[in-house]
Amino acid sequence: MGQEEAAPQSNLKPAADGRWRLLESAPDAILIVDRTGRIAFVNSHAEKMFGYLPDELLGQTVEVLVPEAARTAHVAHRSEFGRTPRTREMGSGLELEGRRKDGSTLPVEISLSPLEEPEGQFVVSAIRDVTERRQIQEALRLSEERFRRLVDEVKDYAIFMLDPEGKVKTWNEGAERIKGYRADEIIGQHFSRFYSSEDVERGKPEEQLRIAVREGRSQDDGWRIRKDGSRFWASVVITALRDERGELRGFGKITRDLTERRRNEESLRHSEERFRLMVDAVKDYAIFMLDGDGRVVSWNPGAERIKGYSAAEIVGQHLSVFYPEEARRRRWPEQQLATAREHGRAEDESLRVRKDGSTFWAHVVMTPVRDATGTLRGYAKVVRDLTDRKRIEALEKAERQTNEFL
After folding, report:
1. Of 51-65, 116-130, 143-157, where does mean pLDDT reach its minimum?
2. Handedness of CA 242, 243, 248, 252 (dihedral sign)
3. pTM here?
4. Torsion sign (Cα): 287, 292, 293, 297
5. Backbone φ/ψ region at 292: left (φ over 0), alpha (ψ -120 to 50), beta
């Protein structure tokens, strides 16, 4: 850097200098510069900010506080500011680099105002150190950049922004994959084009925005329309976005394609329905479910025919009600549950008790039911009444014994 210009003696009147001393209490660094660009006044905040004593700055051109590479441009800007009222207005709130006495730089915001004094025309320069604000802005920019990259890399969700009127402002790759539109095809379009004509006629898109504005978010599952006109089942969450003053700035929208899951659920529901119809059609077997504690949770017509209980009478009862008193004392029902749980199956032929107290000979198979994680959800139980077979076997045995005696 070159030699600093020697400071000439100030020709300011003491009265003016005294008035300006009131600026010592200003929260920002304050410089007063004459029409030639020389510093006529500096407060203590400027001393702290730039590292100069006041006497080192008085009489110097203001460019001493500007990095050398920017001084020519600064002189040109200063000259323009003093020329017309229009450029004076444009000179307020500038952000640029300042230079400390030790040669280091700092980001500052400068507001310039003209000042008419008996001694002549001056410019008041209010200077604020915006280092912390720059750091916050940079951190925010990096955070937003990371968030944008994260959103752009999501493929399984359509994540995009809407303006307050519902027009698309941003578009991620997941949105292009799910909905079929490229960003340049959809940005600026109203989001209602993702809805069926029936939903649009009913005003559903606007209603979802109103709910989000009123409650902060709206959630909806339903059919949506792709670019090619095909439908998909979507789970949609719309969130109202507001600034620090609470003013609505737009909406965040997340859409997930649940078509495959819905198809699987429908298939499972139909399968379960067919199984239920099949079980209900069986009259020769008692087929029912128990919960993890052995209490009845379902009951088919075969169970009602064999055991005598209606579903309303037996659901919620423990399976031990079907066992004779002697078996209950031996805790045989609980042992059967434990065997099924530990070995995957429990099979037994023994006496059981009907609702009316009569007994019958039963063949019982009990199987544990587990979910996809292996967690026990209950037991399936199939019971067959062997009374007639046992009676026939007893008759045949008696006949054999009679023949042998004869």
Report:
1. 143-157
2. negative
3. 0.47
4. negative
5. alpha
